[in-house]
């Protein structure tokens, strides 16, 4: 293969067994769900050592994202190639059948809590599906202090201190590092996050680990130390409409780690950008991405990495389509 040219890359999802998960990802992603146990996460783009996404199409099929980053730094990352040796974002679909632990990831402000080699983590969710009783918690109610939070943890009333959101499909929720958050009771979300694995758990809702028969370990002191108390821009986001023709384009997230747009429509549109990589995620409907005269089919749950070298590409919906497009600032 030509060392200077790359083509749009599709990746196989990596399914993760989770006690709090369900089976809803079966109707969202085309790759079949393994076994019949609860699947909580599908990692759809991951450049983590322990879980590497594999290319599913073309001459690079079977190679990992890490290998492609190493062999094609410039064609893949363009003007960002000198800044990143690992792909800086981790993308997932989550199926939270039960409530996840109440948790927090560090921000850059609490760097002393981040183990060497790890980074802070800002993340964000786009709600795909929710039930009547589904719940998202993102951020603390105003006036909450470290003292009141510790007291409510001891009394099992932490939910009273959290900003609660009743999720509905299409909602966008921003969770900067330092924000207390959780979700569950049958909500499915797409998650974009910094490529990091540092989580401190505050509360487990009384859940018992089925293997150890003990409550799961918490890291309350570390969590309290990295929570950002006071004003925050966490929580439900009001989308910013950037264009209404030929399709509707809304910006949902714009932070130091990622930008994310939602594109909805049925007319031919443009995706990708000159000299920088973009990620496309099929949420609803289908269509074809055109690159170098070749069509690439994009369906529900599909994740495509558009290499920087591909530049701007045409996308032809075959019906009404909803896509997410993600950029690295
Ligand atoms: Zn999280």
Summarize the structure.
The protein is mainly β and 329 residues long. It is built from 4 helices and 25 strands. Helices cover 9% and strands 39% of the residues.
What is the strand content? Answer: 35-45%
What does the average pLDDT come to?
93
Estimate percent helicity. Answer: under 10%
Note the overall shape: globular
Please characterize this protein's 3D structure.
This protein is mainly beta. The chain contains 4 helices and 25 strands. It has a 7-stranded antiparallel sheet, with no helix packed on it. The chain is globular. Bound molecules: zinc ion. Zinc ion (ZN) binds at residues 103, 105, 123, 181.
Keywords, please?
329 residues, 9% helix, 7-stranded antiparallel beta sheet, 25 strands, single chain, 39% strand, binds zinc ion, mainly beta
Q: What is the strand and helix layout of this fold?
A:
Layout: E1 9-10, E2 14-22, E3 39-45, E4 47-48, E5 51-52, H1 65-71, H2 73-77, E6 89-96, E7 102-104, E8 123-130, E9 135-140, H3 146-155, E10 162-165, E11 172-175, E12 181-184, E13 187-194, E14 200-203, H4 220-226, E15 235-236, E16 240-243, E17 248-254, E18 259-265, E19 269-271, E20 278-284, E21 287-291, E22 294-298, E23 303-306, E24 313-317, E25 321-327
The structure holds zinc ion (ZN).
Zinc ion binds next to loops.
């Amino acid at each position: 293969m030509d060392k200077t040219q790359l083509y749009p890359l599709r990746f196989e999802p990596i399914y993760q067994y989770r006690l709090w998960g369900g089976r809803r990802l079966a109707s969202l992603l085309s790759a079949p769900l393994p076994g019949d146990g609860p699947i909580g996460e599908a990692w759809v783009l991951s450049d983590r050592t322990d879980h590497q996404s594999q290319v599913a199409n073309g001459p690079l099929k079977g190679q990992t994202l890490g290998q492609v980053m190493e062999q094609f730094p410039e064609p893949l990352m363009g003007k960002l190639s000198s800044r990143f040796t690992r792909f800086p974002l981790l993308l997932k679909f989550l199926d939270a059948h039960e409530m996840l632990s109440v948790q927090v990831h560090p921000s850059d402000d609490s760097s002393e809590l981040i183990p060497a080699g790890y980074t802070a983590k800002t993340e964000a969710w786009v709600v795909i599906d929710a039930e009547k009783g589904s719940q998202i918690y993102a951020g603390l109610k105003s006036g909450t202090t470290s003292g009141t939070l510790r007291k409510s943890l001891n009394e099992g009333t932490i939910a009273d201190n959290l900003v609660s959101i009743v999720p509905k499909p299409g909602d966008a929720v921003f969770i900067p590092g330092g924000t207390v958050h959780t979700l569950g009771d049958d909500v499915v979300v797409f998650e974009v996050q910094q490529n990091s694995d540092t989580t401190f758990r505050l509360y487990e809702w009384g859940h018992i680990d089925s293997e150890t028969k003990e409550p799961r370990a918490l890291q309350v002191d570390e969590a309290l130390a990295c929570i950002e108390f006071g004003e925050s821009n966490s929580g439900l986001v009001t989308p910013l409409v950037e264009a209404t023709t030929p399709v509707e384009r809304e910006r949902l997230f714009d932070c130091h780690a990622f930008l994310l747009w939602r594109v909805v429509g049925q007319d031919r549109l443009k995706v990708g950008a000159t000299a920088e990589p973009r990620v496309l995620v099929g949420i609803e409907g289908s269509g074809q991405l055109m690159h170098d005269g070749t069509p690439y089919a994009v369906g529900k749950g599909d994740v495509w990495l558009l290499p920087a070298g591909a530049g701007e590409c045409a996308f032809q919906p075959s019906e009404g389509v909803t896509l997410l497009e993600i950029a690295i600032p």
